[in-house]
Amino acid sequence: MFTKMKNIDIAFKHVRTFTFMVVGGCMLLCGFVLYKSYQLAAITESKVYVLANGKALEALAADRKDNIPVEARDHVKDFHIDFFTLDPDDKVIQSNIAKALYLADGSAKRQYEDLKENGYYSNVIAGNISQQITVDSVDVNVNRYPYYFKCYCTQKIIRTSSISYRSLITEGYLRNVSRSDNNPHGFLIERWNMLENKDLKTEAR
């Protein structure tokens, strides 16, 4: 009788131990599955697919601070291209200037108004002049906010009888603003100033 009860007690202990082991294993497995699920979700969320020319291209999401130098240079480049690309068409000039002024503060608007007052844009239209700009390089100091930049450009001025090349160097500061369709990089150029704008050479056409 006692032997039978002892055997039942031992068997019960074995079953209880086995049950604890199964429950513990299930909990460990659930924890591992949850961990891997969160890990996979984090990896998936960091991937963005962009559709370009019918092809899905993978883009990786990153903190803005990792991309500040690249975005700042591109912002400065876009501004200079919009501000200095001119054709003998008032609507084209107004459209380009409007896009440029979304990217800068009143310092750029003052430069535009000075050029307009001096008849620069009227001369472009009257003389059938086209002006193109190549941004050679943009130096941005991201170690101090607002970010100081210096932009080196080459202007190409196409006239009926000649093509002139000019060196253009500008400087300014970048501060953070909200992103929008008109300002996708979320920067605003402040205290924009022309340091140099001199002739390099002129070629006959």
Tally of DSSP β-strands: 6
Supply the helix-strand structural class. alpha+beta
CATH H-level homologous superfamily name of the largest domain: VirB8 protein
At CATH level 3, the topology of the largest domain is Nuclear Transport Factor 2, Chain: A
What fraction, in percent, of the residue positions are helical?
40-55%
Tally of discrete structural domains: 2
Low-confidence stretches: none
Across the major sheet, the strand order is 3-4-5-6
Q: Strand fraction band?
A: 25-35%
Text of the CATH class of the largest domain: Alpha Beta
One letter per element, helices H and strands E, the order comes to HEEHHHHEEEE
What's the arrangement of secondary structure elements?
Elements: H1 2-45, E1 47-52, E2 55-60, H2 64-84, H3 90-101, H4 106-117, H5 120-126, E3 130-141, E4 147-158, E5 162-176, E6 187-204
Antiparallel strand pairs: 1-2, 3-4, 4-5, 5-6
Helix pairs in contact: 2-3
